[in-house]
Design a protein that fits this description.
Largest sheet: 7 strands, mixed
Distance between the termini: 61 Å
Strand content: 5-15%
Shape: globular
Structural class: alpha/beta
Number of helices: 21
């Protein structure tokens, strides 16, 4: 009996070791498959640059005009950003009145406000006098750490448009798509509370449903502004081991139902590198420092440096649409690379990566004890207990926002 048991144990251990070795080999092969072997920028020849420049000169490539032109055919144009990049938000602030004046677009939908607070947003943009304090309070209730001046400016931009619309006529609508962020509930020790809040806060499908109800079903037009991942329509993000992320993104929700009425534009941003998923699984091997890649072999970076002004391209144009990315996170698990046309319909470059600047903080985000207590009520108890005064809270918020990574990215390109 003892001999038989010992033999069984040895066989089990041998099988276990074989399985572990197989897993290790597969992990190494998987990492090797996704390992970028060269720099993410391929230097273009003079003739290649001339070809790209000729294509731009022959098309509508000025960014505002490019976005406006899409509304001649589509009802919802999605803009996907990387967050915290000042040039992107300033562009949107100028684009909103331009679209109103040239195409009559009267709805702007964004991710950064809670849909439950829609009536409060309506009050801010329709008031006879702009109330900055009320706009800040609304943004703070949506997400206590989203204290950025350039995003706040959008309230004033839309309010200014509504001041020009005569009484009795339809006003410009500022559509809130997100859900308010409550980390106290999301990180609750009570599993039931945490799960209920997680389901409530998962707002991708809700974003699509709001735009479907308020825009498409009413035969209106709207500009949608959100983080890039929420705006994806036909592209699905990689998960790990050649799997795709589950769930439907907000843009995809609309695209699946109204493919002929949706146009998705990506705002230029550096890509996390192709090993991002492997690094998240094996931080002890790779370290925790994120690294980035020039998207699409650095073609757009070089065109901007040569062209020396912002530009936009249609991904349906084969000259640009067939460009491939091999080094970024979005081409993870692909042998042949990711084509621009697979990822988006249009692409806008407003500045080079070296010129990217972070958004600025709102100096009067929290100014008194009442506002301090309001934010503390949302924080996990251990974090709230450390917030003794407004200055302590503002330092905490600054750490939460990660806007400083914008300046660091230029030094982390591989």
């Amino acid at each position: 009996m003892k001999i038989r048991l010992a033999t069984t144990c040895r066989a089990f251990l041998k099988t276990l070791l074989v399985l572990l070795a197989a897993v290790l080999v597969l992990a190494v092969l998987y990492v090797g498959f996704n390992l970028p072997m060269t720099s993410s920028m391929r230097m273009l020849t003079t003739e290649e640059l001339r070809t790209y420049k000729r294509c731009l000169d022959a098309s509508v490539c000025e960014p505002q005009q490019f976005v406006a032109a899409q509304f001649d055919r589509y009802d919802v144009v999605l803009l996907g950003e990387m967050h915290w990049k000042r040039q992107d938000v300033e562009f949107v602030n100028l684009l909103i009145p331009y679209l109103y004046q040239t195409k009559g677009v009267k709805i702007f939908a964004w991710e950064f406000g809670a849909s439950d607070l829609q009536s409060e947003a309506d009050q801010v943009v329709n008031a006879p006098v702009f109330d900055r304090k009320q706009a800040i309070a609304l943004m703070r209730k949506s997400y206590f750490a989203w204290n950025f001046e350039e995003y706040l400016d959008i309230f004033r931009t839309i309010w200014q448009i509504n001041q020009t619309i005569p009484s009795g006529q339809e006003k410009f609508k500022f559509l809130q798509l997100g859900s308010d962020y409550n980390p106290r509930k999301l990180q609750s020790s009570d599993a039931a509370i945490q799960m209920k809040e997680r389901r409530r806060y998962a707002y991708d499908e809700k974003m699509g449903q709001i735009v479907e109800r308020e825009v498409l079903q009413r035969q209106k037009k709207a500009l949608w502004y959100s983080g890039l991942h929420h705006a994806f329509t036909k592209y699905k993000q990689p998960l790990v081991l050649f799997l795709k992320a589950r769930g439907v993104r907000g843009g995809a929700y609309l695209y699946q139902r109204y493919p002929e009425r949706i146009y998705m534009i990506q705002l230029y941003l550096p890509f996390l590198d192709r090993l991002t998923l492997s690094k998240s699984l094996l931080p002890s091997v790779f370290g925790r420092q994120l690294t980035f890649a020039y998207p699409f072999r650095g073609v757009f970076e070089q065109i901007y440096r040569e062209y020396k002004k912002p530009f936009a391209v249609d991904a349906k144009n084969s000259v640009f649409g067939d460009l491939e990315d091999h080094h970024g996170y979005y081409s993870q698990d692909r042998w042949g690379g990711l084509k621009l046309r697979e990822m988006c319909d249009g692409y806008i470059v407003l500045c080079s990566i070296d010129e990217m600047e972070p958004v600025s903080v709102v100096p009067d985000w929290v100014t008194n004890e009442g506002e301090l207590q309001e934010v503390k009520s949302l924080l996990p108890p251990e974090d709230a207990a450390r917030m003794k005064d407004v200055s302590t809270l503002l330092k905490y918020i600054e750490r939460e926002t990660q806007r400083s990574q914008i300046k660091e990215i230029r030094n982390l390109i591989r």
